[in-house]
Amino acid sequence: MTVAYRAEYIWIDGTKPIPLMRSKTKVLADGAKPGTWGFDGSSTNQAPGHNSDCVLEPSFTCPDPLRGPKDVLVLCEVRLPGTNEPHATNTRAACVVTANKYKSFEPLFGIEQEYTFFKEGRPLGFPVNGYPAPQGPYYCGVGADEVFGRDIVEAHTTACMDAGLAISGTNAEVMPGQWEFQIGPVGTVEVADHLWMGRYLLYRIAEDFGVNASIIAKPMRGDWNGAGAHTNFSTKQMRANGGWDHIIAACEALGAPGKPAEHIEAYGVGTEDRLTGAHETAHWSTFKYGVSDRGASVRIPWQCAIDKKGYIEDRRPNANMDPYVVTRLITNTVCEAASVAKAAKPQAKAGAKK
């Protein structure tokens, strides 16, 4: 066999409460495509030892920016051997079903992934003893006293661009050692694929610097900002001229009876620590939306209020949320409500004629 390139198979494991990313390398001959593979699920909290085989099914492939020009990264769904049914930890499969169901709405997402660099048990920029100066100068800061870890961020951004991911920006966040990268706008499944791959590259590059990139929702107790994954969303109806009514309808759908609790439950670990009503959050037990309000559950950007069209930002998801779950829920909640409303309109008109 002529050895030509490496494929790094990547998947999400069954660790609780926050799943981990796993990967292993397969060497393939020139011209061969990455196919299904397997792994020991008993070592990843995904199978018992007496029946440990799990299947890796490639779902998204992109260039590997950390290796050679022919090498690739292969994001996989975990499936069961024999039946090929989605494993219980496979949240992508359900996301694909929802995306296909509501594809006529042409949903678009942009996700703002916040994270914190840790080294030797403390965030970068935190002294060995005590604390740094209070929050204020660090957000989008410039200078050695305000910014910590920029070399890692630059390497990660370049890698995401070289991999062809839909990365659209980065910035230093409110707490020292805390950063953000943005993925999108792309579709319901695509944004989640790209975000998971962006996370993988972040972890992998930080590893080379001897630093841990953490997506814990409240990295430091006290008067420090938490880490979220603000999720921007729109449908073609919201983006079109006259889309304001659809924007308000989307906010109302997210706040309909039972929906706030359903979403909060699925928006990641650490909600009660992060969504306290302080530090640019609404309290986890309430739901409200507003224009340019970073203390709301859902923010409508000011420009959208002026243009009367655009998108909304769900500020509740935690940094450690599963993007397949979050995008599926938002797509289903908003598009289902819009479908019901559309179906009810002809009946209302018919009743009016009578």
Automatic annotation (TrEMBL):
NCBIfam families: gln_syn_GlnII. The keyword Transport does not apply. This is glutamine synthetase. Belongs to the glutamine synthetase family. It comes from freshwater metagenome. GO terms for molecular function: ATP binding; glutamine synthetase activity. Its EC number is 6.3.1.2. Gene3D superfamilies: Glutamine synthetase, N-terminal domain (3.10.20.70), Glutamine synthetase/guanido kinase, catalytic domain (3.30.590.10).
